[in-house]
Structure formats: C-alpha cells, structure tokens
TrEMBL record:
Gene Ontology BP annotations: positive regulation of cell division
Compartments (UniProt record): Secreted
Residue ranges occupied by any Pleiotrophin/Midkine N-terminal domain in the UniProt entry: 23-79
Protein name according to UniProt: Midkine
Signal sequence, start to end: 1-21
Coiled-coil ranges (or none): none
Upper lineage: Eukaryota, Metazoa, Chordata, Craniata, Vertebrata
Source superkingdom: Eukaryota
Species the sequence originates in: Oceanites oceanicus
Predominant subcellular localization, coarse grouping: secreted
GO cellular-component term (any): extracellular region
PROSITE patterns in UniProt: PTN_MK_1, PTN_MK_2
Length: 142
C-alpha cells in the first residue's frame, strides 16, 4: 500500500512539473509576440539573385517586422512561392502548339498573399515515345 501511495505522489509531482513547464512556454510567446493581430506581409524578397534566403516585411499599425524566408532556386512559377495549388494531371499533347496543359486550384495563400483562384501551366510535349510494355522476366517467357 505504501508503494502505491509513493507512486501516486510521484505521478502528481510529474504532472504538476509538466503543466508548469507548458505555462512558462506560453508566457514566453506572449512576451516576444506583438499584441497587433492584423499583420500585412509582403512577398519574400531574396537577399541576392532571384532565389535563396531572404526576408519578408510585415506591418501592423505603427509596428514593422522582418521574417526570414526562403525561395527555392528551382521555383520558376509565375504565381509566386506564397500561393499553394493542387494540380490536376497533365492533359494530352496539343498537335497545334506542341504543349500540354494542366490547371491548379488554390489550396492555401500564405501570409495573406494575393493569389489567383485557378492557374494554368504549360510545358513542351515529350519528344520520347514511352513504351507501355516493360521488360518481361525470363521466367515468364518460358
């Protein structure tokens, strides 16, 4: 019976310690954060060239902040890195233009970015003809 009491006491102490630690983390966030709730964020501007690390400026009333951000160097989309889209599969190849097209529907606009609801992307058709049959195993041929 004494062992149960000791275990129960240890469990209560552990529970109280974790609750106190969680409270301290919440207080730190409030001290570092701003009371302003209507932040307006600009686009991510790379420090050099057109991709890589950079900063995003935000304003709210009389306050301003800079956040670190990153634009991937393989990101060539004209609709920006702050607009996330869900894309359909690529359509068939157009014989007239030699291009294939697909559309994307806006999934999420980060930092209140101004994004188009639907975007269209094209790319050149592949010059390679893909064979539908993959190589067969020698066991299947006999």
């Amino acid at each position: 019976m004494q062992v149960r009491g000791l275990l129960l006491l240890l469990a209560l102490i552990l529970l109280a310690a974790t609750a106190e630690a969680g409270k301290n983390k919440k207080e730190k966030v409030k001290k570092d954060g701003s009371e302003c709730e209507d932040w307006r964020w600009g686009p991510c501007v790379p420090t050099s060239k057109d991709c890589g690390l950079g900063y995003r400026e935000g304003t709210c009333k009389d306050e301003s902040k800079k956040l670190k951000c990153k634009i991937p160097c393989n990101w060539k989309k004209k609709f920006g890195a702050d607009c996330k889209y869900k894309f359909e599969s690529w359509g068939g190849c157009s014989a007239q233009t030699g291009m294939k097209t697909r559309s994307g529907i806006l999934k999420k606009a980060l930092y209140n970015a101004q994004c188009e609801e639907i975007v269209y992307v094209t790319k050149p058709c592949s010059s390679k003809i893909k064979s539908k049959s993959k190589g067969q195993s020698p066991l299947l041929l006999s």
